[in-house]
Amino acid sequence: MMDFGFSLSKSSTINLDTVDTTLYKKLCDMEPDARICMSCGSCSASCTAASFSGMSLRKVILALQRDQDVRPMLSNCMLSGKCTMVCPRAINTRHLILTLYRIYDR
Amino acid sequence: MITEGKQKIWSDYQKEIPDDHWYYVRSCIRQNFFPASEKMFTEITQKVLGKDLYETPHHTTCGGIAYHCDTIPQETVMTIVARQFALMTEAGYENYVPSCITSFGNYCEILETWHEFPELEAKIRENLWKACKREFKKPKYLAHTSDLIYHWRNAIAAKAKHHLVNKETGEPLKIVEHIGCHYAKMFPSKGVGGAEYPYVLAGMVESWGGQVVDYPERRHCCGYGFRQYHVKANRGYSVSNTHKKFESMEPFHPDAIITNCPGCPYFLDRWQYVIAEQTGKTYGKDGFGIPVFTYEEMAGIILGYDPWDLGLQLHQVAVEPFLDKIGVEYDPKAKYLGMNKEDIMRPELPKSIKCC
């Protein structure tokens, strides 16, 4: 393969008909508040880890809905709980993240 | 009743294109990429159809590339464009036709801005006078060169020696039409068919016997997008856009692509080699790519011009399989002979994509 100094990016197209949402459904069963997230991004804006690690709970929930691996991002969470304090939907986001840990542990 | 209704709605998507007397301005880059395209436009307009087309060597760039790369402010571009209009006015013309899609978009944007902000137009008139003592009238009609070929498509078809039909099977060839983003996505009312149903190239394909391919990413950008390509770090994004289009059109097995923008044919043509090098994949039959043509080249082919006089030897993707399909006769040995029949040298051929 010739090196041009740039390469093709992986397509970000998501086929919602073929996406496996098992993990997201499991999260919603254990943490029904996940369904009321409106992706406002307040959690990401207030996150202590965000500016250093790219941690974003909004992206985590979106990625789960698209069957993408969220573990690398999730591992950056410091459980500070700031996101819980600012969530306009009063989702216990800290608890939601701990639930996700439990799902992945299983 | 329903047909009448649809025809009425469709009439709203048309634009008025005068039949004659045009002031022509060339593109900065097209003559380097596809050297015979603009020559073929003047040939068809003046010699084949006998129209009045005027151009002047005093014309310069419209400033569009620098503007879209964020290197010069719009007021500078406006003054450059004001000078082009002054040249048109001095030549006694009212109909302005640029060869470049970005220039066309640029002119549309500037005329619209002046319409909304007359004080800005007054300032630009003052700038132009201070800079070069020139005055101008705004064009009465503004069209892109593809609008004119679209307008004359049936007259061209009447003089055609070949049609976009497979000579073996008699089936119409499947043609992908790709329209430059700056044609109608910025100002839908300025393009034939608007931004929703752009018909400028589809009309040519249908008149010349071909069948238009409708595929999911039909309206997606070719990937050039100025800053996406000019900044090397962004070129992966540029080629990824082109890759997305080819992946989308591949299941429909197109025989060729027709374009009306300076950048689109270049990138749809050249990136096929890059994609082949990076993924090993080609999109034509038997390891070839899908040939990409400008609308002037396509018009020249069907009018029976020698493919090598149309500059088709400078395409990355081999055009011979397409020429064979429609029955164009050509001399393979003359492919790399220049105007004086001297050898212009052969390019090194890639192994990843088959070339003739």
- Enter the CATH topology name of the largest domain in chain B: Rossmann fold
Euclidean distance between termini CA atoms of chain A: 41 Å
Largest interface: A-B, 10 and 16 residues
Number of domains of chain B: 2
Tally of contiguous helical segments of chain B: 16
Oligomer: heterodimer
The succession of helices and strands of chain A, N to C, reads: HHHHHHH
Please state the structural category of chain B. Answer: alpha/beta
Beta-strand percent range of chain A: under 5%
Query: Roughly how much helix do the residues of chain B carry, as a percent range?
Result: 40-55%
Strand order of the largest sheet of chain B: 2-1-3-4
Total number of strands of chain A: 0
Mean pLDDT across residues of chain A = 92
CATH C-level class of the largest domain in chain B: Alpha Beta
Unreliable stretches covering 5 or more consecutive residues of chain B: none
Strand runs of chain B, count: 8
Mean pLDDT value of chain B:
94
Compact description:
The complex is a heterodimer of chains A (106) and B (356). With 106 residues, chain A is mostly helical. Chain A has one domain (22-105).
Description:
By secondary structure, chain A is mainly α. Chain A has one domain (about 20-105). Chain A contains seven helices and no strands. Chain A is globular. In chain B, strand 7, helix 14 and strand 8 form a beta-alpha-beta unit. Chain B has helices spanning about 1-10, 30-35, 35-50, 65-70, 75-90, 100-115, 120-130, 145-150, 155-160, 180-185, 200-205, 225-230, 235-250, 265-280, 295-305, 320-325; strands at about 20-25, 55, 95-100, 140, 175-180, 210, 255-260, 290-295. The N and C termini of chain B lie far apart (about 55 Å). Chain B has two domains: about 20-145, Glutathione S-transferase Yfyf (Class Pi), Chain A, domain 2 (Up-down Bundle), CATH 1.20.1050.140; about 160-335, Rossmann fold (3-Layer(aba) Sandwich). In chain B, strands 2-1-3-4 form a four-stranded parallel β-sheet. In chain B, strands 6-5-7-8 form a four-stranded parallel β-sheet, sandwiched between helices. By secondary structure, chain B is α/β, with parallel strands linked by helices. The longest helix of chain B is centred in the first third of the chain and has 18 residues, at about 75-90.
